Amino acid sequence: MVEKRREWTLNAVLAIALFAVPLAALWLDEPFYITLATRVAILALAGVGLNIALGLGGMVSFGHAAYFGIGGYVAGILAHHAFSGQPLFLGLSGSNQMLVIWAVAMAISALAALVIGALSLRTSGIFFIMITLAFAQMIFYFALSWPAYGGEDGLPIFLRNQFPGLNTMRGWEMFVLSYAVLMLALALFAMLRGARFGAALMAIRQNPARAAAVGISPFGIKLTAFVISGMITGLAGAMMAELTRFVSPAMMTWQMSGELIVIIILGGVGRLFGPVAGAGILVAFEVLFGGLTEHWQFFLGLVLLGVVLFARGGLIGLLAGRERHG
Amino acid sequence: MADPVLRLEGVSKSFAALRAVQDVSLSLAPGEIHALIGPNGAGKSTLMALVSGALAPDAGRIVFRGQDVTRLSVAQRARMGLGRSFQVSSLIPEYSARRNVMLALQARQGHSWRFFHPVSRDRSLMDPAREILRRVGLSGRASVPSAELSHGERRLLEIALALALQPAAFLLDEPMAGMGTEGTRQLTGFLDGLRAEAPILLVEHDMDAVFALADRISVLAGGRVIASGTVAEIRADADVRRAYLGEEEGA
Ligand SMILES: Nc1ncnc2c1ncn2[C@@H]1O[C@H](COP(=O)(O)OP(=O)(O)OP(=O)(O)O)[C@@H](O)[C@H]1O
Ligand SMILES: [Mg+2]
Questions:
Q1: What is the value of pTM for the model shown?
Q2: Is-contact B228 B219, C-beta < 8 A?
């Protein structure tokens, strides 16, 4: 399988590049690029989450910013209470431990995805897109109008939370942490895709009638995928909040949901390293053209149009060919 | 006669004003091939969809293996042992022939809830898949995506998927469609042997195949069973001839 080997090579190149760029920046003492690479890693992580629902399961969620934002707010709120010393509720206190925060962020975004998925997965096509958008907008307006945690002004995280053995205030260490989590998520994605669960999920995307005819009920499989998907995007949200040390309703806008979809499409829908390639392209555009013109998103739109019209497999598909399931 | 594996009791289905299936009762006994014939638009595929669960009947009951399955989903009925092939091949396009069969096998084994063990190294899927592809004569095409298979190969893969379910009854909707003379002859021989594994409800337009295979034939026209009997009886039936000459019954 020539295509398969080529895809692995490409994946290795992307993984190494994402590590090498900030490493070089560390040497040259250019912290800006370390932050940038961390941003790419975290956006890619959010994309890996969406790629499970959209890429493997064909569920075009236009509301994944909800989980991204929920993860962010969990980090912000727990850190806020840890900082102020005020209990959260029921006597529970906040936390400044990333591991605790991540666990809570994943649990709550999984719960949100479970509820939203259970209600949305009865529909499909454009209705599914619309209903996931509607739920995300509800959560967005809730955050906007919730004064306890900053409302539309958002909520700062004064001190980055802690991770055992690391100094997370150092840009490089924050990057390594984000990179490691991204790699773990990619390993999880690859495992799910190769296992029976993934085989069922991808079959349901391609031909639900056939999947049912051999005895696979689509709903449970899709809902499980949707929950795992929301959970990973939620984790990415918590990490993004750490990176920017700030959460606000902006994390939950429909533009953010769109950005996550754009990442997947640019990189290659359903491809393992699609989100990494997509996040890299998105951030590169932001940096290269964001400085020149306010309208950098216009150019991004042109590229997106080109991908949709001429390179349906995104960057990975363009360079490594179609995906094969031997 | 032994208890039927499958029994339809007064099953009806309408699409708006069109009565596609009207008050159909029939049964499928162990070891038999029950052929369902009739002109285009007679309601044969609709009836198959009702049996498989893809459509819900407006009236009537479907009993499979002694259990009323009228309200069960397609997937539930498949897991109970209904192995179906589609009139128009319906496969997983990006999956190879082997992967298609493995999907049916994993469903048959009852669990898609394995998240880590790779299917490509799962002997309990790979080995039986190889055997099934060999049986239908697709061994040489195992790793070709089903979308790239020829029409005839896709028809065979449809049969392979039904086989993989080790069903208690086969529902085959025009398995011979577009298979050519040689393909039809081979498939006829194959289905002849298959009835020993499980009875077959067979929709087929190829009359040579039907007359060679069927233990019983039911003739559907305008959604109704207008005749039912042995090959000899159906050959002699005047109503059947009329139906095939296109004089629609009751329409
Ligand atoms: N989903 C549907 N909605 C509306 N009408 C339908 C639907 N499915 C089938 N029909 C109509 O019901 C009638 C029976 O169709 P069906 O496909 O069951 O016929 P058939 O006997 O399988 O014909 P053929 O031999 O051409 O396959 C036809 O008039 C068809 O147009
Ligand atoms: Mg038909």
A1: 0.93
A2: yes
Interchain proximity A203–B95, CB inside 8 Å: yes
Q: Which amino acid is at B78?
A: A
Residue A193: is its pLDDT beyond 80?
Answer: yes
The helix or strand, by DSSP H or E, that contains position B170, with its residue range, turns out to be: strand B169-173
At B245, phi and psi to the nearest 5? Answer: -80, -5
pLDDT tens by residue, A38-48: 999 999 999 99
Query: Residue A325 domain-assigned?
Result: no
Interface of B with A in 39-58 (CB under 8 A): 52, 54
Q: Please say whether the beta carbons of A209 and B54 come within 8 A.
A: yes
B22: Cβ below 6 Å to ligand 1?
Answer: no
pLDDT band at residue B251 under the 50/70/90 scheme? very low
What ipTM is given for this predicted complex? Answer: 0.91
- The range of the structural domain enclosing residue A161 comes to 2-320
Contact yes or no for A323/A270 (Cβ under 8 A) = yes
Helix (H, G, I), strand (E, B) or coil at B219: strand
> Which chain A residue has the Cα nearest residue B171?
A213
Say which of B95, B111, B145 has its CB closest to residue A196: B111
> Is A129 among the domain residues?
yes
pLDDT for position B248: 45
Q: Which atom of ligand 1 is nearest to the CA of B220?
A: 21
Q: Please tell me if the CB atom of residue B181 comes closer than 6 angstroms to any atom of ligand 1.
A: no
Instruction: Please tell me the total count of domains within chain A.
Output: 1
What structural domains does chain B harbor? 1-81+169-251 (3.40.50.300), 92-166 (no CATH)
* Centroid of ligand 1 to alpha carbon of B16 (angstroms): 12
Q: What is the pLDDT of residues A4-24, one digit of tens each?
A: 889 999 999 999 999 999 999
Would you state the structure tokens that stand for residue B110, as one six-digit string? Answer: 């009852």
B11, B15, B37, best to mutate for ligand 1 pocket (most atoms within 8 Å of CB): B15
pLDDT given at position A302: 81
Cβ pairs A/B, distance under 8 A: 112
